[in-house]
């Protein structure tokens, strides 16, 4: 057994299924911390504008409702949901908080509401296991943040949500990743 907090199986290195089934290729792995052992499920999705843009047409409104419903289903079925390209601003997180009142909803946003933006949704089950301090460290606004959960007599656990823009030049990507490694 690994001494790390989260053991990731070889299946995570394989290509993930298409966006319509973002968690389908992931396996549940055992999470060990202190004397607690439980199944921990994580899922990530680049939602390509979830928040921040007012839907103008009927199709845009339907797409928005579908995306919010999809994120709600992801959150209700997983312990941690990482979202990239949510767009918008901190005030837009209220829509997710309203839909998921028992979840912790944290986010970080770019200066422009039309770019980037990341969010992390944490289940009430995981919040119940870690009943202490929750800290959020924004490494790069709208692009990278880490969440650390402490408490319950357990070792702290941290999750990082990162969005690297594929179109960035290689030098910018290297600089961004080096800032994450600090």
Q: What is the gist of this entry?
A:
The chain is an alpha+beta fold. The protein has four helices and nine strands; from the N terminus they run E-E-E-H-E-H-E-E-H-E-E-E-H.
Features:
182 residues, alpha+beta, 4-stranded mixed β-sheet, 9 strands, 30% strand, disordered N terminus
The chain-level structural class is alpha+beta
Counted beta strands:
9
Strand order of the largest sheet: 3-4-6-5
Number of helices: 4
Share of residues in helices: 10-25%
What is the N-to-C succession of helices and strands?
EEEHEHEEHEEEH
Detail the poorly predicted runs. 1-27
Overall mean pLDDT score?
A: 79
Shape: globular
Beta-strand residue fraction: 25-35%
Question: End-to-end span in angstroms?
Answer: 28 Å
Tell me the radius of gyration: 17 Å
The largest sheet is:
4 strands, mixed
Strands, helices and their partners?
Layout: E1 29-33, E2 36-40, E3 42-46, H1 58-77, E4 80-84, H2 93-99, E5 104-108, E6 118-122, H3 124-129, E7 134-140, E8 144-151, E9 154-162, H4 170-181
Parallel strand pairs: 3-4
Antiparallel strand pairs: 1-2, 4-6, 5-6, 7-8, 8-9
Question: How is this structure best described in words?
Answer:
- The protein has 182 residues and is an alpha+beta fold.
- Helices cover 25% and strands 30% of the residues.
- It has helices at 58-77, 93-99, 124-129, 170-181, and strands spanning 29-33, 36-40, 42-46, 80-84, 104-108, 118-122, 134-140, 144-151, 154-162.
- The strands form three sheets. A four-stranded mixed β-sheet has the order 3-4-6-5.
- A hairpin with a 2-residue loop joins strand 8 (144-151) and strand 9 (154-162).
- The longest helix has 20 residues, at 58-77.
- The chain is globular.
- The chain starts with 28 loop residues before the first strand and ends with a helix.
- Mean pLDDT is 79; it is low at 1-27.
């Amino acid at each position: 057994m690994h001494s790390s907090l989260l053991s990731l199986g070889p299946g995570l290195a394989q290509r993930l299924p298409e966006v319509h089934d973002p968690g389908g290729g992931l396996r549940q792995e055992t999470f060990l911390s202190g004397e607690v052992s439980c199944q921990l499920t994580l899922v990530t999705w680049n939602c390509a504008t979830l928040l921040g843009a007012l839907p103008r047409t009927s199709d845009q409104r339907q797409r928005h409702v579908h995306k919010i419903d999809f994120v709600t289903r992801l959150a209700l079925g997983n312990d941690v949901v990482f979202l990239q390209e949510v767009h918008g601003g901190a005030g837009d997180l209220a829509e997710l908080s309203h839909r998921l009142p028992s979840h912790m909803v944290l986010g970080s946003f770019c200066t422009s509401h039309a770019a980037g933006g990341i969010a992390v949704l944490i289940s009430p089950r995981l919040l119940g296991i870690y009943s202490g301090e929750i800290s959020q460290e924004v490494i790069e606004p709208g692009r990278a943040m880490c969440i650390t959960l402490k408490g319950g007599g357990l070792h702290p656990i941290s999750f990082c949500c990162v969005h690297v823009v594929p179109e960035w030049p290689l030098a910018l990507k290297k600089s961004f990743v080096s800032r994450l490694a600090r």
